[in-house]
Amino acid sequence: MINLSNSQDSIFSTTAATKKLARAIMVSAGEFSLVLACCNSVRKQQQVLNLLIEFSSADIQDILLTPTTQTLYSTIAHKIGATQPEALMIRGLESVIAINQLIISTNLMRDEFRKKFRFPIVLWTNDEILCKLVWLAPDLKNWAASSIRFDVPQNQLTESEQQPVNA
Predict the structure, then answer these.
(1) 70 contacts: CB under 8 Å, gap ≥ 6
(2) 85, 59 contact by CB (below 8 A)
(3) Which residue has better confidence, 40 or 54?
(4) d(CA 94, CA 72)
(5) How far apart are CA 40 and CA 157, in angstroms?
(6) Facing residues of 90 across strands?
(7) Greater pLDDT, 48 or 38
(8) 2-11, 12-21, 37-46: which has the minimum mean pLDDT?
(9) Which of 75, 59, 71, 74 is nearest to 120 (CA)?
């Protein structure tokens, strides 16, 4: 059963998470940081990005990865060239065919990110990619603070639906 309060809670939760993301970008201005934004809906990622542009005064650059992307570091370096954006969003990890290899190579190159990039990088993940980061790139994952969630994981949704509602 869906009721209005669930919808309002979702809007409030998304807005709060977006403000948290904007704050993380602002705090890291001018220095490298890794922020993980977890959202299982590509469409919602775009909505959040649009909302973020409203909340943040930072010039946010967006890179959408293609299925054939092989390395994250090289892709970022090539796309930004000599410029240093105020913040960088990386979307499309879920579309990368060789995602395991990309994650492993990113973990191996992690020190280069800190040396070359003087801006926060927001990696948009879904639950599956987040799990892969934990297992395949634990050192890289540990650089990030806790993930900022933009939706409820499916298993939590199922659990909350099964709990009785007290009136």
Answers:
(1) 98, 101, 102, 105
(2) yes
(3) 40
(4) 13
(5) 13
(6) 63, 123
(7) 38
(8) 2-11
(9) 59
